[in-house]
Amino acid sequence: MKRRKAVNLEPNGPDEIKTRIPVWLYPSTLEVMDRTLETAGCKSRSEFLEKAALFYAGYVSGQDACEFLPAALTDALRSTVHDSENRTCRLLFKLAVELDMVMNVLAAGMEIPQEDLDRLRGRCVREVKSTNGSVTLKDAVDYQRGGA
């Protein structure tokens, strides 16, 4: 697979001179181009084709995708990700509070030697790593009753 190369989206300098080239386009393509000239902020077909060529070259080369997405779409994506992060942080905080409450209730009612607690912590770390955090109360009960 060919590796894509970055494309320079800016002219190489103010002294650069445009080159005239023949372009063959279907009448329907010209019609679409003429209808969108003003929307694209172009004064001529030539300017429109130049912007379109630079846009497509940047898209194909994989350069910063944000340059090619509409600003509204980029803002919506950023907002969605930010909201998801905030929601996840709030839920993790609530979970940590609940877990702290459970641990304090258990600690108040049980007398667990420090070495047993240290061994249990190591076992729990290994268990969480090996299951990617998918631990269940049933697994803990099975272990505490002498299971694997």
Write up this protein.
This protein is 62% helix and 0% strand. It has five helices and no strands.
Keywords:
148 residues; mainly alpha; 5 helices; rod-shaped
Summarize the structure.
The protein is mainly alpha-helical and about 150 residues long.
- Compute the CA-based radius of gyration: 31 Å
Note the beta-strand portion: under 5%
The biggest sheet amounts to:
none
Please, how many helices? 5
Number of strands: 0
Helix coverage percent of residues? 55-70%
Shape: rod-shaped
**Helix and strand composition category:** mainly alpha
Point out poorly predicted stretches.
Answer: none
Q: Termini separation (Å)?
A: 48 Å
Order of helices and strands: HHHHH
Mean pLDDT: 83
Write the layout of secondary structure elements.
Layout: H1 27-36, H2 45-61, H3 71-109, H4 114-131, H5 137-144
